Amino acid sequence: MNYVVLSELLIKVLGIYFAINAFNYSIYLAGVVAVEGLSDWFVPEVARIGVNAFVAMLLILSASQISKLITPSKVADEEIKNSMGVQEWTGVGISLLGIYFVVSMISPLSNLLSTMNKVSSESVNGIPDGLIATLIGYCITVVIGLWLTMGGKGIANAISQLRVSGVQK
Questions:
Q1: In whole angstroms, what is the distance from residue 169 CA to residue 157 CA?
Q2: pLDDT in single tens digits along all 169 residues of the chain
Q3: What local confidence, expressed as pLDDT, does residue 86 receive?
Q4: How far apart are the first and last CA of the chain?
Q5: Residue 167 phi/psi, 5° resolution?
Q6: 114: closest CA among 30, 46, 26?
Q7: Which phi and psi (to 5°) does residue 75 adopt?
Q8: Which residues does 67 contact at the CB level (< 8 Å), separation at least 6?
Q9: Can you list the pairs that 8-11 forms with residues at least 24 positions away whose Cβ atoms lie under 8 Å?
Q10: Torsion angles phi and psi, residue 153, rounded to 5
Q11: Facing residues of 79 across strands?
Q12: Which of 63, 57, 39, 46 is nearest to 107 (CA)?
């Protein structure tokens, strides 16, 4: 097993996690609808399930392309040995963490945008400040996740430099 295969496997596990979330939430939503009936909140909640399912399919189907993107090229085809480099593992781990940040914000972000659309069409005063602050927080999380995903290798280099700084040779 090489690094690309391992990171592809981990991305697929993340996709399965989102598929399970979509399934669990759809079961919950079916129970709520059975008890309370349909309401105005039903469409955004179904959209949330759809977004989770779409992201799950996207992660599972494009795992090989994503893993090639985040795996350092110098170790991509190397076989994994017992003496793996901490820097390579750190870079891949940080990139996977960034992917998780981005993907986990997609569902709440879409739900918030739906809520903001509904509130702005029904309100005279516009969108409440709390919703705008929440939107800014979600967008910051997505930007941090993208930065971690694309810059995981550079961050891993910085972490390794911090580990050895001040050490007498």
A1: 19
A2: 677 787 888 888 888 888 888 888 888 888 878 877 787 778 778 888 888 899 899 999 998 888 888 776 666 566 655 555 666 777 777 777 888 888 888 778 877 777 777 777 666 567 777 777 888 888 888 888 888 877 766 666 666 666 666 655 5
A3: 66
A4: 35
A5: -85, 130
A6: 46
A7: -120, 10
A8: 4, 5, 7, 8, 11
A9: 8/63, 8/64, 8/66, 8/67, 9/63, 10/92, 10/96, 11/59, 11/63, 11/66, 11/67, 11/96, 11/99
A10: -70, -45
A11: 2
A12: 46
Query: What whole-number distance in Å separates Cα of residue 8 and Cα of residue 27?
Result: 29
The amino acid sitting at 136 is I
Q: Which token pair is 43?
A: 């469409």
Distance (Å, whole) CA 38 – CA 84: 54
CA distance 8 to 49: 24
Q: Hey, what are 116's tokens? A: 């903001």
Domain ranges (residues) in the chain: 3-164
pLDDT at 57 (0 to 100) = 93
pLDDT of residue 4: 77
Neighbour tally for 66: CB within 10 Å = 22
